[in-house]
Amino acid sequence: MTISDIQYENYFKQGSFYTRNDIWKVFHPNSGEKPSGGNWDTGYTREDHYLIVFMNIDTAGRTGHDFANEYNEEDETITWFGKPNTNSRQPTFQKLIGGELKPIFFARWDSSNPNFKFLGTARIIDYVDNVLLEDGRATIKLTLQSESLKESIGDAPINYEQETTTFALEKHLEEFIIENWSRAEIGAEYDILRDGDDLVGQQYQTDTGRIDILAVKKDVSEYLVIELKKGRPSDSVVGQIARYIGYIEAEVADENQEVKGAIIALDDDLRIRRALQVMPSVKFYRYEIQFKLTEE
After folding, report:
1. What secondary structure letter does DSSP report for 247?
2. Domain 3-146 is found in CATH 2.30.280
3. Distances from the Cα of 292 to the Cαs of 11, 20, 265, 270, 288, in angstroms?
4. pLDDT in tens, 195-254
């Protein structure tokens, strides 16, 4: 196993707090205490295939900059600003946007507190260059979706091979489903929502977040809200799809159109199945490697 095979985020528990030195020791287990100065004492630093982000929210960092960073606990979205004079054309952000670097987020709400809350890894939803800061300099603004791999790892041993395979599949599952929609059973009954020639049903924006996939029945009698688990906590996925169905019912569907839901995961999930027992309009599917959706 090479160092790039290790999923370092498994060493942290989402929602728990860590100092920079705690995090340093995970990435440098045989190097003693974190040295002072350098990138490890700034807003972000690169380690192997990770970009470790130390994000200040509603508080200025040690350089005095007070970026408008945000973390929305409801939909687990992150708004993050780069250092002054950074943009998407620079090598670090090109690798981040291209997927060569994985962002891993730690946040704090008081710059005098050395402890950062672990938010998990995240995928980029959108980015904008040339966003002006208070001092007139420009930077890049990124919007990301948290995608923590595990609810809690406790002290259990880590199966790196299994975690790496699962992450790789989950990371690309949405794109794979979109590209192979016509091959899945669900594609025989539904089409991904379009506006003319534009595909608008992928990452469909609502007032409480983005729907992974919004589809419409071929006879236009029903909308289908699809959420992919993608490592998120079970309760979070169930809560999100309930909110999204409510949005589509209130803001998009006609009074004669039904709105149903589907949650897709790589593995069986007892918590999801129990929750959906009282949500008959939402079905749970398990994705199989042969591109088959099996209703649970």
Report:
1. H
2. yes
3. 33, 43, 12, 20, 5
4. 988 999 998 999 888 899 999 999 999 999 999 887 666 777 898 899 999 999 999 999
